[in-house]
Design a protein that fits this description.
With 267 residues, the protein is α/β, with parallel strands linked by helices. It has 9 helices and 12 strands. The protein has 2 domains: 97 residues, Periplasmic binding protein-like II (D-Maltodextrin-Binding Protein, domain 2), CATH 3.40.190.10; 99 residues, D-Maltodextrin-Binding Protein, domain 2 (3-Layer(aba) Sandwich).
Length: 267
């Protein structure tokens, strides 16, 4: 497009919007607040069109439907890859869209219809959703091999609160569980560093920056310089839940995935 044609298109767009979208400077243009707002809406429209084209393309090659799944980090790290791989082998014509989110975001997305199915932790309120057991997991205390606690086979959480912790960012159900447990013991959780993933927690602990609590299944197998110690506290045994608005209202593809995941804990 030539510069003159571009200028004409911009002028036409401003007339249609009935407001200025750019501030003209001698050496270029700068978006006005209205222009920035328009850009956001335009990107959303383009994203929607691209998703539509992607979905229609899937149907054209034989895909029978899409299932939107939002899940928390614990489920994605420990269980979902294997469970979804089995499902996809059995149902190759069903497309699954998976997003990793905090448990509260997962519940909100299912309630709002943004996700067909959600997986979240048991300590997050989920009123209004139908819930089904997905998996159980166990939390462990992860410490460097030269840490004073490294020789213990199991430990109560209260004994670990004397030390600095590496934890997940605010909003995670696991961090909330640790804060609640510390408060019940009338102690403070001394968070030295907060990160966004279990792998980052492991790396920070490897570097000697603190200790941390993770699901046992999320501790990386290749770690050699760390010790995983089982926590004796009852809250260290968790349940992960599947949530939907209504089993009866699910599209057949989502219902098949829900039934598959409900049976996964028995396998």
């Amino acid at each position: 497009m030539t510069l003159s044609a571009l200028s004409k298109r911009i002028a036409e767009l401003e007339r249609t919007a009935d407001c200025s979208l750019f501030v003209r400077h001698p050496r270029g243009l700068e978006l006005t607040p209205a222009g920035r707002e328009l850009v956001q809406h335009a990107r959303a429209v383009l994203d929607s069109v691209n998703r539509m084209a992607y979905a229609m393309g899937d149907f054209a090659i034989g895909v029978r439907g899409h299932v939107r799944v939002w899940a928390n980090t614990s489920s994605i790290t420990q269980f979902l890859p294997r469970d979804l791989a089995v499902f996809v082998r059995e149902q190759p014509l069903i497309r699954i869209s998976l997003e990793e989110k905090l448990s509260e975001q997962v519940i909100a997305a299912v309630a709002a219809g943004e996700a067909d199915l959600g997986i979240f932790a048991d300590n997050v309120p989920s009123q209004g959703l139908e819930k089904y057991l997905y998996r159980h997991d166990r939390l462990v205390l992860l410490v460097p091999s030269d840490h004073p606690l490294a020789g213990a086979a199991e430990i109560g959480f209260g004994e670990a609160l004397e030390y600095d912790f590496v934890g997940l960012n605010q909003g995670s159900s696991l961090l909330q569980r640790l804060n609640d447990a510390a408060a019940a013991l009338e102690k403070a959780l001394r968070l030295r560093i907060q990160v966004s993933s279990f792998d980052a927690i492991c790396r920070m602990i490897e570097a000697g920056l603190g200790i941390g609590v993770l699901p046992e299944g999320a501790v990386r197998a290749e770690i050699t310089g760390l010790r995983a110690i089982r926590l004796t506290d009852p809250w260290a045994h968790r349940s992960l839940w599947l949530g939907v608005n209504s089993r009866a209202s699910l599209v057949p593809e989502a219902a098949k995935l829900l039934d598959h995941l409900r049976q996964a804990h028995a396998s």
